[in-house]
């Protein structure tokens, strides 16, 4: 999805947070609004690597977290869809549930000077 598909998707260069604000492993959600549009995304940190994903289940289209920023399982080994229990590896591939074989949509981010920015 490019920005033209959703005007609320932030442009490249928007500072999201410091890497230190993310547990290791950990996750954090973000919401951006532009008029009637909403863009929801989240970050997952594992070590020094931070990945971004669009907050939408590939099976049902609803947000993954039942509670803000709770994208990971209790053992922090998988991303969990709270709606139907699908599990995704930390790279976004569905490994269990009704969307097995599908993956989350990437949200391009970059780490620079200890902070995470949209790319």
TrEMBL record:
- Domain Rieske: where? 14-118
Return any one Pfam family short name. Answer: Rieske
Lineage here is: Bacteria, Pseudomonadati, Pseudomonadota, Alphaproteobacteria, Caulobacterales
Translocase recorded as keyword? no
Record keyword Ribosomal protein present: no
**Which InterPro entries does the UniProt entry name for this protein?**
Rieske_2Fe-2S, Rieske_2Fe-2S_sf
Q: What is the organism field in this record?
A: Phenylobacterium soli
What domain of life? Bacteria
Name by which UniProt lists this protein: Rieske (2Fe-2S) protein
What CDD domains is this protein classified in? Rieske
**A Gene Ontology MF term for this entry?**
2 iron, 2 sulfur cluster binding
């Amino acid at each position: 999805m490019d920005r033209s598909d959703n005007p609320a998707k932030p442009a490249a260069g928007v500072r999201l947070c410091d890497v230190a604000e993310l547990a290791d492993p950990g996750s954090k959600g973000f919401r951006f609004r532009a008029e009637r549009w909403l863009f929801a995304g989240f970050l997952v940190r594992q070590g020094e690597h931070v990945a971004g994903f669009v907050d939408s289940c590939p099976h049902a289209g609803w947000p993954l977290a039942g509670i803000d920023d709770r994208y990971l399982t209790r053992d922090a080994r998988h991303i969990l869809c709270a709606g139907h229990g699908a599990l995704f590896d930390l790279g976004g591939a569905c490994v269990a549930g009704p969307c097995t074989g599908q993956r989350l949509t990437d949200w391009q981010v970059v780490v620079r000077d200890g902070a995470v920015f949209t790319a």
